[in-house]
What does this fold into?
Amino acid sequence: MAARSWLGLGLMLAGLTLGLAGGREGGRADAQPSPSGPGRPIPPAGAPVHGMPKGWRFTWPKGDPVKGRGVFQKFECHSCHEVRGESFPTPSDAGRAGPELSGMGALHSPEFFAEAIINPGAVIERGRGYAAADGSSKMPSYGDALTLQETIDLVAFLRQLRPPAGPARGHGAHTTH
It folds into this structure.
């Protein structure tokens, strides 16, 4: 009788082991897909596999345009950028002037503005006076100067800008093609 108990216990453990091992591949909710493709390391057995969720897209945080206006003032962005309809001082050095910003809010995504602030050399409009003699952007990078929250708020401020009624004036008035 003792032999039958050990045999039964052994079969039960073997079944449990096979059941657990098969659960990974058997369509269970906790089953993880196997990574495939060259250069991808194979994780240890039982380790979850992570990857980019299908359809994932970066969602830019909302930000506070009022705080963003304060960031614009704090970093003296108005020394190079005119903003029609705002009470900022007019840019005094035409050689450093960037585009007029009041019409930009409706034209660009938040990600575009963020890149222009953090990595201004990524996109330079040639022939508009925004490139330095060496072809780089005249605008300095603010990636190390701004906090993440200041960047989010500054982008919110730029996104809500709209041109005032009336004709465009000043250097760098932005037009679309």
